[in-house]
Write a structure and sequence with these properties.
The protein is of the alpha/beta class. Helices cover 41% and strands 19% of the residues. The protein contains 12 helices and 15 strands. The two termini are 30 Å apart.
């Protein structure tokens, strides 16, 4: 059982972050925020796949104006990603945004920061301080400190600015493209503050490499009880980020949403097309929300026994397979009929 770090709880829209709230899964749209139709389509698609928070790039006043309509139609809370221009932050708050991602030290004069903090407080809009290892303050970049320590120092400066403006609805992230640096930065900050932490390995890469880096980095921290929200950053569809996020959480027993899919590696005993079978089953059951464990095993020798804890499973034979439930075989079918029957049985009970 993982003992989670005790953190202050905040709310982004209707989603609780920190404290004893479930660790939430976040992604970011890659559409032009000004294009309300395509942005909303992507938000809805993300929500259908379980995404609980979505961040939007707000690059100009037209994008900030679009927030008003997007907020009316979005099924999940929206976070505005803003750099440097405090006026965009103010406009987004006025248009109903649920949270901001903006670093207060980067928006100019102290009076600008005060205006954003005051309006955010009045409207219950949390602010995420997002530190990136590749874009730190000049004096920190030139410092001899290890990068993780520089990132923490930067975060503490930004936190102080908000606290000096009597604002404490804060979430913090410290992302690096280097996994070990990311881990060390979060460990350091976790011992210094009680604000909730948003985890991510930035610029993690394309699908396979990005998931591996994120699983190592986020998984290490989550196993230590660190982290309140996560984003798996991939050069891929945002939907894949959400799927990967839930897989990481489920592997640690931190979320039970949806299918926990297990399958064995192929070996010389396998006499069924296990790879095709496993992929098809996983794909056809991906929209089931109930926390079921589904197993696809290569042979009847070890299948039902090794996966007896599964709610449902398939064990392969010679061009045929066995369907089992809670470790007991209930049907034997030819290979070509296995998937349809297996999926039908599960859907009859769980959809």
């Amino acid at each position: 059982m993982i003992q989670r770090r005790k953190s202050k709880q905040i709310k982004i829209g209707n989603i609780k972050i920190g404290g004893d709230a479930p660790i939430s899964v976040q992604s970011m749209t890659n559409t032009d925020t000004r294009d309300i139709k395509s942005t909303l389509k992507q938000i809805n698609n993300l929500a259908e796949h379980g995404c609980e928070l979505v961040r939007l790039a707000v690059l100009n006043p037209d994008a900030a104006d679009a927030i008003r309509e997007l907020k009316k139609l979005s099924p999940i809370p929206l976070i505005a990603d803003i750099h440097f221009d405090y006026r965009l932050a103010i406009k987004c708050i006025e248009n109903g945004i649920d949270a901001l991602r903006i670093n207060p030290g980067n928006i100019g004069k102290s009076e600008h920061t005060r205006k954003v903090a005051e309006l955010a407080k009045i409207n219950n809009v949390p602010i995420r301080i997002g530190i990136n290892g590749g874009s730190l303050e000049k004096d920190l970049e030139e410092s001899d400190m290890p990068l993780a320590e520089k990132m923490v120092e930067s975060a503490m400066r930004h936190i102080k600015i908000l606290e000096d403006n009597n604002f404490d609805q804060i979430k913090v992230s410290l992302k690096s493209s280097n996994v070990l640096t990311t881990i060390e930065a979060y460990r350091l900050i976790a011992s210094k503050i009680d604000y909730p932490l948003h985890l991510g390995v930035t610029e993690a890469g394309t699908y396979t490499g990005g998931i591996i880096k994120s699983a190592v980095g986020l998984g290490t921290l989550l196993a230590e009880g660190i982290g309140d929200t996560i984003r798996v950053s991939l050069t891929d569809s945002p939907v894949e980020e959400v799927k990967a996020g839930f897989m990481i959480l489920k592997s640690l027993g931190l979320r039970q949403k949806g299918i926990n899919f297990i399958s064995c590696p192929t070996c010389g005993r396998t006499q069924i097309d296990l790879i095709k079978l496993a992929k098809e089953v996983e794909k056809r059951l991906e929209n089931i929300d109930k926390p079921l464990t589904i197993a696809v095993m290569g042979c009847a020798v070890n299948g039902p026994g090794e996966a007896k804890h599964a709610d449902w499973g398939i064990a392969g034979g010679i061009k045929e397979g066995y369907i089992f439930k809670k470790g007991e075989i209930i049907k034997r079918l030819p290979e070509e009929k296995l998937v349809d029957e297996f999926v039908n049985l599960i859907q009859m009970e769980n959809v």
